[in-house]
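yo, Monooxygenase is done. seq:
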Amino acid sequence: MRGGSIAVVGGSIAGSAFARAATRQGAERVVVLERSPGRLEDRGVGICILDDRFAELVGAGHVTEDVRRHRLTVRRWITRDASRGGDARGRHLWAQPFAFHSYHWGVLWQALRERMPGNVEYRLGTTVTAVGTGEDDAWITDTTGAREPYDLVIGADGYRSVVREAVCPDALPEYAGYVCWRGSYDAERLAELPGGAEAWPEQECATVCYPGGQVVIYRIPGVTPGRTQVNWVFYAPAPAWLRLDGPTSIPAGTLDDGRADELKALAERELPPYWAALVTLTPLERTFLQPIYDLATPRRTAGRLLLAGDAATVVRPHNTSGAVKALQDAHAFEDAWRAGRSWAATLSAYDRERVTMGRELVELGRRLGRAQVGAAPDWSTMDEPGMIAWWQQQLTGSGGFGGHALTRRS
Ligand SMILES: Cc1cc2nc3c(=O)[nH]c(=O)nc-3n(C[C@H](O)[C@H](O)[C@H](O)COP(=O)(O)OP(=O)(O)OC[C@H]3O[C@@H](n4cnc5c(N)ncnc54)[C@H](O)[C@@H]3O)c2cc1C
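structure:
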């Protein structure tokens, strides 16, 4: 099957991967509609990707090996626990082997964007307000009220997807009961900490555990080549001021000093001094907050609509699989397209391939979240053998930490 016109709603990781996948398979016209008017590469957050999953995606042609990244080899689990020998960096619990690299979200996005064929039309600053489908086509409307028909509309519009409302209106992200604060800054500032940057080896991802949560801290590449940033994700109970009437987040630049002071107080109360100081070095405008959600849609397609990435499945970040999942969705879409003789066959093959996988990842994310945050052990009783046994228990079942292996049918 070749040809056809395709609208991709959302131009982030999933949107970029699907736009490229569609052109690779011979779509005649591909239009990406992205709400954000500005430079998406400025979104300053880190993500980790398991080396094996990344290598598979390179092999399948979705990313290139030369994306700037930071090597991680060890995930060091730590707790404060001064009574059992914890120093300024805390008490060591476990040095877990960790075959991951970390990426700057914006650098990864830029790499995907650069590989986009020139004939893909990008409309930045365009918000899609509604979509719909008939048997033989689909349509979108944007804020101007204009309605445009396409052969296929792909919803890569994230956890608050407009396209999902049309595919499965009852599927809504479910609040997991806790939030994460996030932040990043130039790693040169680590010199300001007592102990400096040397106290924290470059290839270590630190996971600092406390009753009620944990902070995951790792370095990522800076937007500028040659620079490095510190990136952290601080899981915590929701602050009293947060209103959760529906899926939401508190973006960078909108927190005030009072709310940031709550984070500082939490860090100083719960973390060993080195890590508390590392978190509190973060500039206010680089600090933000995201509630944690779970979402597994019962189906991914309806008529000529298709869901991709976080629009279809939101997995708790403990699983470090979101970016891989989005890229693998694009891979499955290409496989389905290559094998399908009609749009209906392509969409139903894609749906079959990805729905169960999504459910399994969400389930694993829930299990990891319960074990590490909601019903975490008493860290003061844990040692290395205890940590290894505790980790193994979390992975029973379908597996998929860091994402499932890529299946290739081509
Ligand atoms: C705290 C945290 C840590 C994470 N860590 C990792 C990690 O270590 N490794 C990993 O692999 N994943 C991680 N993830 C998950 C990962 O970031 C996401 O799964 C991934 O970025 C999803 O990409 P996406 O393209 O599907 O959605 P998004 O990145 O949410 O993109 C959706 C896009 O759609 C646009 N949009 C939305 N609505 C509209 C509209 N109506 N019209 C037009 N455009 C619209 C938005 O502006 C946005 O650009 C983490 C997530 C969180 C919250």
